[in-house]
Amino acid sequence: MNCIIIDDELTARAIINQLCASTTSINVLGEFSNAIQAIKYLNQNEVDLIFLDIHMPDFTGFDFIETIKNPPKIILTTSDPQFAIQAFEYSCIVDYLVKPITIERFNKGIQKAEAFTKVTNNTTADTPEESEANTDNHLYINIDRRLIKIEIPSIYLIEAKGDYIQVKTEDKNYTVHSTLKKIEEKLPPDLFLKVHRSYIINIKKIIDIEDNSVLIKRDVIPVSRSNRPELMKRLNLL
Amino acid sequence: MEQPNLSYIHSMSGGDKAFEQKLINIIKEEFPQEKQAYYNSASAKQLKETAENVHKLKHKISILGLEKSYEIAREYEENLVEGNTNLENEFNNILQNITDYLEQL
């Protein structure tokens, strides 16, 4: 898991960095002494996990969580045990570590974050999420611990966005923690086609095709050269 | 008075002596700054800011294994939030205790 550390105290950041170095599953991408710097970083980069101090001047950890869209998994690090109850109000928070953090407690937190990842990857769980089996004409995606049913024919476009995919339907768009490969397996192949490494389209929703792109609703989607023959084959050409 | 120690640092370093020294250096650098910020706010009677500074110092107190001192700091921080400076002298003694310890490291 790629992570960042947000804490205004250098000592705390050094300790968390060292604890991360002791486990092979964590890769520290950066550390920030304030939440604003971290928000700027997250606007440009994706991370799987954030170690977040609650008690910071001007902008608290909770302010930070409220500010970012689609927060990744968060482990709170704090000297204030009294915030634990408030922490449970956020589905993205997977653990709450009280300083000074021991190795044992840190490892437990990492296990929780990994378990959280497995659950979400395997179809159900927390945060903006993932799809479930398609036995009929629908699938379920997990948004903030709620499984939301989506009629498959209503999907017209799926776009890869880093560790997430955006599922666009006639009514609404959903951002889900998953991959194109996973959702492709759940979709009927006669209806959907991957036309580009970042896009799957519903071929019945195509409005027009021009050179190396298709128009679906208002989205112009690129078609890669290698996928174009399959697309042309699937169309009911006159 | 209880004495600071490096038990916590040893326990989480995994035997990494270079890291232990690095962390001690960071504490030696950061603690005087935090202590000064605390004294500045305390002498200016800015109780909310003083509470924030005590909060920050609490982590160093716990890292150095000062369990009873940590409890005093926690209580002092609460007092400051409530608008009184009870335990100020006790807390200042803790800071001096740590200062003396860090000087001999």
Structural features, described:
The complex is a heterodimer of chains A (238) and B (105). With 238 residues, chain A is of the alpha/beta class. Chain A has 2 domains: 120 residues, Response regulator (Rossmann fold, 3-Layer(aba) Sandwich); 97 residues, LytTr DNA-binding domain (OB fold (Dihydrolipoamide Acetyltransferase, E2P), Beta Barrel), CATH 2.40.50. Chain A has 7 helices and 15 strands. Chain A has a 5-stranded parallel β-sheet. A 5-stranded antiparallel β-sheet of chain A has the order 10-9-8-12-11, with no helix packed on it. The termini of chain A are far apart. About 5% of the residues of chain A have low confidence. Chain B is an all-alpha fold. Chain B has a domain of 72 residues. Chain B has 5 helices and no strands. In chain B, helix 4 crosses helix 5. The mean pLDDT of chain B is 96. Chains A and B meet through helix 1 of A and helix 1, helix 2 and helix 3 of B.
What does this entry show, briefly?
The complex is a heterodimer of chains A (238) and B (105). By secondary structure, chain A is α/β, with parallel strands linked by helices. Chain A is built from 7 helices and 15 strands.
